Amino acid sequence: MNLSKIIEGLNEDQKKELTILLNRDLNIPKINLLISEINSDRPIHCPHCKSNDIYGHGNYKSRKRYKCKSCVKTFNDLTGTAMDGIKKVDKFQDYLILMVESLSIRKAAKKLDLNMKTIFDWRHKILSSLSDINGNDCSGIVECDDKQLNVNKKGVRNLERKPYKRPSDREIKRGVSNDKISIMVATDRNNNPMMRIAKVGRIDAVSVQNTIGNFVKSDNVLCSDSHPSIIKWATGRELEHHTHIASKHIKSTCYHVQHVNSLDNLYERWIKPFYGVSTKYLSGYLNWFVFLQKMKKSQSQVTDLAVELIKNVRAIKI
Questions:
Q1: What is the chain's alpha carbon radius of gyration, rounded to the nearest angstrom?
Q2: Residue 268 contacts by C-beta under 8 Å, 6 or more apart in sequence?
Q3: What is the pLDDT of residues 26-38, one digit of tens each?
Q4: 79 with 71: CB under 8 angstroms?
Q5: Could you give the CA distance from residue 64 to residue 290 in angstroms, rounded to a whole number?
Q6: Residue 52 and residue 161 in one domain
Q7: Based on the domain organization, do 57 and 148 belong to the same domain?
Q8: Verdict on whether the full-model pTM lies above 0.90
Q9: What's the total number of domains in the chain?
Q10: Based on the number of CB atoms within 10 Å of its own CB, is 117 exposed (0-12), middle (13-18) or buried (19 or more)?
Q11: Is 188 within a domain?
């Protein structure tokens, strides 16, 4: 079989489709190999009681099994992770590629020939494992801003109001109100973004501290708009703080908020195909978006995602 002649006989669309398929096959992570690599670089602890007084206890489905001397419970390499209890491991590995591609639940279920409920559960187990990557590092100049999103009660059965037949039926109040949820968005100039839910309604100095307080250090330079709560918080932390007022058309080559505004716009475009995300699950989607932004220059995004899942032993159990 002469592969080169077969490829030459393909048209441009077929070649592009072949490239996508090859990239997917080559990028599927080998979970067992990743587990061995990660466990060789870190001590193994009991996911139930955090004790390191453990010993080998055989094997389970080609995974190493352990037993804790403290709580006398057994566990394996994937206990507590997003892959704990996954029966269709091969298809779960395929789904990691679709997560990187930000595919909807319906489309992913059709591609993998699985029930939509299964894909929904997998998605939220994965999203619960990405919290550690959201706001774990920054350096130099940090830009921050607050963003308002409508409170979304999608999926709630016991509403205190009549359900909307269409989004246009909703009466949206202008400006900040208790019908909206505030999100703190921050990023440095090295593509280390952070997006976290602050509170319902207008932000205050306390909610700013709870969201970006650990992200921004004393040696960072903060740039923001002239929001009084951000100014109050920065003053209390004795940070070097520069405010940017767009209406005054003051341009600075260094102290501006262009990166954080661009991050806001990217998020709006990315979240739109999901047709509204419930506020209940919003935190997970913010983690997902931050992960994609941090890893967008990586050549092995799917492997990076698999590594995060294996490392985090605090994933939700569905």
A1: 23
A2: none
A3: 555 666 666 666 6
A4: no
A5: 32
A6: no
A7: no
A8: no
A9: 2
A10: exposed
A11: yes
